[in-house]
Amino acid sequence: MTQINRLPDQHWHHRNTFAAVSAVDLMGSQTGSESPSEMSQPRWRTGRRLWAVGLFAAVALVAAYGSWWAARREPSGAELTLHGNVDLRQVELPFNNSERVAEVLVEEGTRVTRGQILARLDTSRLRPQLSQAEAQLAAQRAAVQRLHNGSRPEEIAQARANVVLAHADAGNAQQQYLRLQNLSDTSAGRGISRQDLDNAKTALEAAQARLAINQNALKLQVIGPRQEDIAQAEAELGADEARLELLRQQLADANLVAPVDGVVRSRLLEAGEMASPQHAAFALTVTDPKWVRAYVDEAELGKVRMGMPASVNVDAFPGQSFVGWVGFVSPVSEFTPKSVQTEELRTSLVYEVRVFVRDPLDKLPLGTPATVTLPLPVPAAAAAAGAVR
Asked: What predicted TM-score, i.e. pTM, was given to this entire model?
């Protein structure tokens, strides 16, 4: 590149030197014929004069070339202009449940805010399940509370009374058996039958067993329920609570709400259709954040910095600039997208730049061609040179 620029400069140098020599010869010819003294001067004086003229022309040529090179290196303007398109995020909103759509509340193009209900599902089969789960939870909660409270004083008193009764029955049975045993011994077995003696013995053993049972029941009433039974009841209570919470969430999910502020771009389901988590009901366009997707080549990449201010202009609003800033500079190069550049530049490696823009009134729709202007700091040397000139 440097050699190509020197060829015109050398040609200009030789041409100016030839013009200077021709001018000197012309001046000599206009003075008339030379005197004999002038003709006798050495020829080296003529060569010295030509050398001086050539040196002057060379100095002038160097000065002109320096001025041209300085003007070429000086930036034409302290800004970088990029071209791109407005881009933004889009959200597809499906229902979480598989149920029939009851009503759709918004139309395409409607502005929605975060938390606004967009559509509802039929909940006629979900609400009875919710009521049943609430009843089961209440019953299990009462059971856990009963176990924590333990035995009532009345239950313990009843258990003690049963022990006293069983103790009396056992004492009576023992006395009956002893009497029959003495009678049998004094009569040598002839005063009572062997069957009656065996029945009395069996009644005594049964009374003693009932006494032991009632004594153990009293102990259980005093000790209270086992810790394992309490833990099991609490676990069942937690399961019932989780099931109820799931049903409540399903009931809440029957209302499809907007997750962010935006505009309804597509309405994909109508009332009466079956909703599914695999199929979106709406396509929502997020209006904030919004950015301009542009591309910068490697030679200009060093001028772009994260956070630097920017000005965005579109043809739809001439004379109006939108405030923006550089929010993303791709660390990876890519080929220029074919949809936004000419064929000559499609094979060039560029870097994506996202210039975020403030658009509170949502004037910039998706895909709008935009021009981005990045003010660049003027180098100190260039600024000083401009001040001197």
From this structure: 0.57
